């Protein structure tokens, strides 16, 4: 089998699956704030989201309610294990929309040393989202030096 046909139609070779509490509300938030399209919504008998598939900026991802019996757990109460970055034309507007819809600002939108304009929020469902636009290419050495200065 060639590598060309190893992922389902519409999926990249690398895709994201995560779980959140109140997944049904998360589907609405991701649709209303980030512009995601819900492609699949499978509910358990109790109405919770067993599995959902969304598309955002041409990328498909999946989410569900927590299922601890299978080791599928929501984000921790504090901090995060990962960040989802959404590249958009107007990060200021998307950031403001996210905060107005209940996201917690973690860093305000600003021009950062990587050449991006970026802000970071934690959505009401515990996922850390970077909302960014790439404005200019910066040499890796310059980014590394600025990152070291920023963390010092």
Automatic annotation (TrEMBL):
Protein name: Glyoxalase superfamily protein PhnB
Domain VOC per the UniProt entry, residue ranges: 10-134
Gene3D superfamilies named among the record's database cross-references: 3.30.720.110, 3.30.720.120
A family per Pfam: Glyoxalase
Originating species: Catenuloplanes indicus
Domain of life where this protein originates: Bacteria
SUPFAM superfamilies membership: Glyoxalase/Bleomycin resistance protein/Dihydroxybiphenyl dioxygenase
InterPro entries found in the cross-reference section: Glyas_Bleomycin-R_OHBP_Dase, Glyas_Fos-R_dOase_dom, VOC_core
């Amino acid at each position: 089998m060639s590598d060309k046909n190893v992922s389902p139609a519409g999926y990249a070779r690398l895709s994201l699956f995560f779980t959140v509490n109140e997944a049904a509300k998360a589907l609405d938030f991701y649709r209303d704030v980030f512009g995601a399209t819900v492609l699949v919504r499978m509910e358990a008998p109790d109405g919770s989201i067993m599995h959902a598939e969304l598309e955002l900026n041409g990328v498909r991802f999946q989410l569900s309610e927590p299922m601890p019996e299978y080791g599928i757990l929501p984000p921790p109460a504090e901090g995060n294990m990962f960040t989802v970055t959404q590249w958009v034309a107007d990060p200021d507007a998307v950031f403001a929309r996210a905060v107005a819809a209940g996201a917690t600002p973690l860093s305000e939108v600003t021009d950062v040393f990587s050449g991006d304009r970026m802000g970071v929020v934690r959505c009401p469902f515990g996922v850390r989202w970077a909302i960014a636009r790439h404005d200019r290419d910066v040499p890796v050495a310059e980014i590394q030096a600025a990152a070291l200065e920023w963390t010092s």
